[in-house]
Amino acid sequence: MGLAGRQTLDSLYPQARKLQFELKMQMSYLDSGRTGGRTDAELQAEARANLSTLEQLLWQLDSLVQTSAKPAERDTWAKKLQQLRSETHALGSTLEQHIYSVNRRAVEARERESLMSRRNAGFDSGNGAIYAAQESESLQRSSQMVSDLTSLSQSILGDLGEQRNRMKVRPGGRTN
Predict the structure, then answer these.
(1) Structural domain span for residue 13
(2) 3-state secondary structure at position 43
(3) What string of DSSP letters covers 140-157?
(4) SS3 51
(5) 175: which strand partners?
(6) Which BP terms in the Gene Ontology apply to this protein (predicted)?
(7) 123: left (phi over 0), alpha (psi -120 to 50) or beta
(8) At what angle do helices 40-68 and 71-120 cross, to 10 degrees?
(9) Which residues in 52-68 are b (16+ Cβ under 10 Å) and which e?
(10) Are 102 and 40 in contact (CB under 8 A)?
(11) CA 30 to CA 7: how far, in whole Å?
(12) Distance between CA atoms of 170 and 176, rounded to whole angstroms?
């Protein structure tokens, strides 16, 4: 491979930043429900693909910092990449949380529809106990889903707090 085809830090870093911006926009669209004529699933798939590409670019950039960056510039590049990596990780967590929420809402909607159709079907008293038990189980599953979502949210908030604290600390132990 000649020098013209060789990827450099200066060429890959702007690509990574642009891709990260696109991912942020996609997350904004997903959160707001404005999908621009695409389905939520299509936008999620595009966001996942961008996240994967961005992670690959970060891996390439890490490799280039170690192999081709001048020693005096390595710390600067390492800091830039760490910030990019942290933001990418946060976006990935947000995307996974969104997908998890969408999937949970779909399951809950199906269960709710099933419950309502059984309840409205005019079941007889012999089946009433069975249906009541099924409703109870469904309610327990829904309660567990809410608990899982709350735990996931708390975990993400904790990670973001830790990330914020790490970003506040400067070299030498000084804080902003």
Answers:
(1) 8-173
(2) helix
(3) HHHHHHHHHHHHHHHHHH
(4) helix
(5) 169
(6) protein transport; vesicle-mediated transport
(7) beta
(8) 160
(9) eebeebbeebeebbeee
(10) yes
(11) 32
(12) 7
Tell me which residue of 54, 60, 63 sits closest to 90, measured CA to CA: 54
- Alpha-carbon Rg of the chain, whole angstroms? 24
Q: What is the pLDDT of residue 139?
A: 87
- Any domain includes 2: no
* Residues in contact with 147: Cβ distance below 8 Å, sequence separation at least 6, in sequence order: none
Token look-up 């969408």 returns: 102
Q: What is the CA angle 112-115-119, rounded to 5?
A: 140
pLDDT in tens, 34-52: 777 888 889 999 999 999 9
| 47-51, 61-65, 104-108, 133-137: least confidently modelled range | 133-137
Asked if residue 1 belongs to a domain, the reply is: no
Q: Tell whether 3 is covered by a domain.
A: no
- Give me the number of domains the chain comprises: 1
**Collapsing DSSP states into helix, strand and coil, what is residue 175?**
strand
